[in-house]
Amino acid sequence: MDALELLVRNTSEVLTLEGSHRERAETALTPRAGACVGIRHGRIAFVGQESELPPNAVNLQTQVLDAEGGFVGPGFVDPHTHLVFAGERSAEFDLRNQGATYLEIAKAGGGIVSTVRATRAASEDDLVRLALPRVQRLLAQGVTVAEVKSGYGLDVENELKMLRVVRRLRALAPVELVPTLLCAHAVPEEYRGRREDYVRLCIDEILPAVAREGLARFCDVFVEDSAFTVDEARRILTAGRALGLVPRLHADQLTACGASELAAEMGAATADHLEQVTDAGLRALADANVTAVLVPTSTLFLRMRPYAPGRRIRDAGLNIALGTNVNPGSAMSENTALAMGLACLENGLTAAEAYWAATRGAALSLGLQRNGRLAVGDAGDLVMFSCASYRHLPYHLGVGHARTVVKSGRVVLRQELNSCG
Ligand code: NIG
């Protein structure tokens, strides 16, 4: 074996996530007690006991990191973010805490379209400057891959602008960003009363322009009474798919509106939110093997009930992914640890299921076979935690424990954190 470039040793355990979502989550995490991890050429090259390291695996050039008895796992993957935006909506937060609902605020001219106004007014440079600290906060949680949606541009120029910002951020931050076109996030103000014209703009102009520049991997639609109908979503997602964009859906968040059934029909990669999913919707998702993306921070933030039925979703056999949904309206939070805590407290997942959902489950939802796992040949993305067990993460509610983050074999973040848990 050529010498390793990086070796992590002195761990409580290494979670390699080599199992499948169909088995018990504790087994799927595949814990390796006291193991060490070696990286070469930016990829995992060794996982095992130090005594099993081949001769010459470590030389003077190998960077050796001491995990100080903490556990090690793959970088977190955030499968649902809206982290590119301008402006903020703290006044809406206040209004909701006094009883106004998300929909009432949207109807009064706030909500998504207010962020659209601010985002349209911002330059590409402004948006990069505003988004970079959000990416940095995700990284501080241990996130090494994040999906990012457009959806605050809602015209050709501004949707392209948002996705170009994502492309620029990819070069600036050590977090791999996976772009999703969400031009069907809301009907923009200038199309009020002319929604069919906006659907045509999405299909005839925005989607082709984005595909021409290769700016997105996925196409998403907010399917909701207040946003786009199932029929409109079907047309937009079909047009996107013809251009190579894989469907994802904001499904059954505020009302049960047939979005999960559409996700199944379209063979979508994911159905996200699912607070209101029906039994029939759940069966359809399970039959079509669609990943359920849970974003409980937004359920909390909007003071909504119920939370998505994570326990039933898991028991129906779906793969589950867990995201922060960071955005200015429904989840102003880049806190993966909080999302994991809520997934346990409110969606009914176990700690192991929540950890799977934030790592391997999320990577699979993005089609990333080599992420969210630490098998030989996988991406050299890992997190060294300041606690000995993954169970501590949802339990220590909202507190991040990523002490050192490694991306493609390079240390990209170190934080002074005392050992705990
Ligand atoms: O995923 N539900 C739609 N989209 C976002 C909220 C966006 C906003 O309010 O600005 C979500 O929760």
TrEMBL record:
InterPro entries recorded: Amidohydro_3 (IPR013108), HutI (IPR005920), Metal-dep_hydrolase_composite (IPR011059), Metal_Hydrolase (IPR032466)
SUPFAM superfamilies, A to Z: Composite domain of metallo-dependent hydrolases (SSF51338), Metallo-dependent hydrolases (SSF51556)
Subcellular location: Cytoplasm
Top EC class for this record: hydrolase
Single GO cellular component term: cytoplasm
Biological pathway: Amino-acid degradation; L-histidine degradation into L-glutamate; N-formimidoyl-L-glutamate from L-histidine: step 3/3
Biological processes annotated in GO: L-histidine catabolic process to glutamate and formamide; L-histidine catabolic process to glutamate and formate
Chief subcellular location: cytoplasm
Cofactor note text: Binds 1 zinc or iron ion per subunit.
GO terms, molecular function: imidazolonepropionase activity; iron ion binding; zinc ion binding
UniProt KW keywords: Cytoplasm, Histidine metabolism, Hydrolase, Iron, Metal-binding, Zinc
Amino-acid positions noted as binding Zn(2+) in the UniProt annotation, renumbered to this chain: H80, H82, H250, N325
NCBIfam families attached to this UniProt entry: hutI
HAMAP family: HutI
Family to which the UniProt record says this protein belongs: Belongs to the metallo-dependent hydrolases superfamily. HutI family.
Protein name from the UniProt record: Imidazolonepropionase
Biological source species: Myxococcus stipitatus (strain DSM 14675 / JCM 12634 / Mx s8)
Taxonomic lineage of the native organism: Bacteria, Pseudomonadati, Myxococcota, Myxococcia, Myxococcales
